[in-house]
Amino acid sequence: MATRIFADKNMKIGGISPELYGSFLEHLGRAVYEGVYEPGHPTADKDGFRGDVLALVRELGVPLVRYPGGNFVSGYDWKDGIGKKSERKVRPDLAWASVEPNEFGIDEFMKWCKKAEIQPMLAFNMGTGTPKDALELFEYCNYPSGTYYSDLRRKNGAGSPYGIKYWCIGNEMDGEWQICNLTADDYGKKAGQTMRMIRKADAKGAGEEGAVKLVVCGSSSVEIPTYPEWDRVVLEHTYEDADFISMHRYYEYMPSGKNPLEDFLGSADDMAEFIETIRATIRYVRAKKRSRHNVFISFDEWNVWSQHAKRTAPNWVKAPHLIEDNYTVRDLLVFAGMLNTLLNHADVVKVACLAQLVNVIAPILTEKGGAAIRQTIFYPFSYASAHGRGEAIRTISSSGKFDSRYGSARLINEAVTHDAAKREVCVFLVNYGQSAEETELELRSFGELSCREFVCIENNDLDLRNTFSAPDAVKPEHREPVSVKDGCRACVRVSPMSWNFLRFTY
Ligand code: AHR
Fold first, then answer.
1. If pLDDT is split at 50, 70 and 90, which confidence band does 311 have?
2. pLDDT tens digits for 79-103?
3. Whose CA is nearest to atom 4 of ligand 1?
4. By three-state DSSP, how is residue 360 classified?
5. 441-498 tens-digit pLDDT
6. Which stretches within 156-224 are classed as H helix?
7. Taking a C-beta distance cutoff of 8 angstroms, is the pair 227, 180 a contact?
């Protein structure tokens, strides 16, 4: 029997924030060095920024990038990364057992963001860092002039303040792997104190027009024993000053498991349950505090990551080849489902960062001195970012189910978006089934729809990946657009284990 998916223009989930398509750049492996920054590369500009990477970042469609970590930030002194390059200190990076040359710091990042037309999201060090360090970084970035750190920024070449809007109050402070990790209570207090200082320095309250946006650390994963109690405690300490609570989640294909494929393919629906738990926790604290303030979710690390893959890079070198996952078709399918989950929670997830951007668990891979290529996961992201705009629309689906380690999951995983300005309705579909599925779309109330584009990625070889010798082994294929009956009904044959994108206009 066919799968029926029904959507009506009036059944809105919520507005899709452009920042849902953010990404993440950490001082980790070759993300910065040999990733975005490689002086001497044939495409590098006078600042050492790789032109080929910049072009791919633009094509990917990333409006916001979180920086500089990640685990790295919890041992990072931002002052090491400013001033004359020849005088910058080379430091050990304990988070990734690497050497940090500090050739690239906040001023280089801001220059790169300007070139890439990207909004920065900066993280404070809440590990070895103090609230005072955070305040000084804020002063360096956002004060116009006339104070020690703002004048230092000017001396370092940036006359105008950076006006950074998004600030993360640390990173994964619940994790025992985090440098100077804290209990929920201790982190909640430290974060709260830092946030109150930042609010004073910004001279605006949470939610006020033009105020900075603060993100407190939520649980770094559902697998951590303190989840979800951590989130409640942290929110109770910080609720009125927080705009967002962060969520992080990586999924992994574990071939040695009992039902490895089903378990992996169930990830997107499990991610939805995680979001619903954090939504409920936010609501609980809001009620407990008798607050009228709204806190949203910043899902600022998400991706597929083979964490059990062996580490082969040497320790204590600059820019080692670290966690450079080479994504498969199978990874792409899970990734696309996760993206659908974010869209289907667009009312509460207002920021999301694909972790990460270049080389390290990233959609873009580079060779030192050589090429830059698109990984399989590049495509669902670039299509969603280009077309998944406007509003997310609720769907009702008759999809069959399968069992995974997370419980039951949908065989056909979908998201529907409506961009009224472009008069465009888009459907993102993943078939997790082993057979082709006739899928009937009923897209009501939008107007007389015509299908303009039908794009698909499918391949029987789920292990297929893009490599430097075969960079286009996996790429989208254009299909004949489907016909639409009565202006709203379309039938799509969705190939087994495939990602599909359909664009309709009216
Ligand atoms: O993205 C890689 C790492 O994953 C980040 O540094 C950390 O925040 C998370 O555990």
1. confident
2. 999 999 999 999 999 999 999 999 9
3. 70
4. coil
5. 999 999 999 999 999 999 999 999 999 999 999 999 999 999 999 999 999 999 999 9
6. 184-202
7. no
For residue 128, CA distances in Å to 72, 124, 301, 309, 333 come to 11, 10, 22, 29, 39
Ordered domains of the chain (ranges, CATH): 3-8+394-505 (2.60.40.1180), 17-387 (3.20.20.80)
How far apart CA 141 and CA 164 sit, in angstroms, is 7
* Residue of 110, 117, 102 lying closest to 140 (CA atoms): 110
Q: What is the pLDDT, as a whole number, of residue 310?
A: 67
187 C-alpha to ligand 1 centroid (Å): 18
Q: pLDDT per residue over 200-222, tens digit each?
A: 999 998 889 999 999 999 999 99
Which ligand 1 atom minimizes the distance to the CA of 303?
1
| Cα R_g (the chain), whole angstroms | 23
- CA atoms within 13 A of residue 349's CA, in its CB half-sphere: 29
What's the farthest any 2 CA atoms get from each other in the chain?
70
> 450 C-alpha vs ligand 1 centroid, how far in Å?
43
Secondary structure (3-state) at 389: coil
pLDDT in tens, 382-433: 999 999 999 999 999 999 999 999 999 999 999 999 999 999 999 999 999 9
- Torsion, Cα of 125, 242, 285, 280 (10° steps): -90
Nearest CA to ligand 1 atom 2: 70
Q: Which residues are catalytic?
A: 172, 301
Q: What is the pLDDT of residues 233-272, one digit of tens each?
A: 999 999 999 999 999 999 999 999 899 999 999 999 999 9
The response to whether residue 388 sits with its C-beta less than 6 Å from ligand 1 reads no
8 A C-beta contact, residue 138 and residue 168: no
**Nearest residue (CA) to ligand 1, atom 5:** 70
Return the number of other C-beta atoms located less than 10 Å from residue 371's C-beta.
11
The kind and range of the H/E element at 168 are strand 166-169
> 10 Å Cβ neighbour count for 97?
15
Percentage, residues of the chain above pLDDT 90: 97
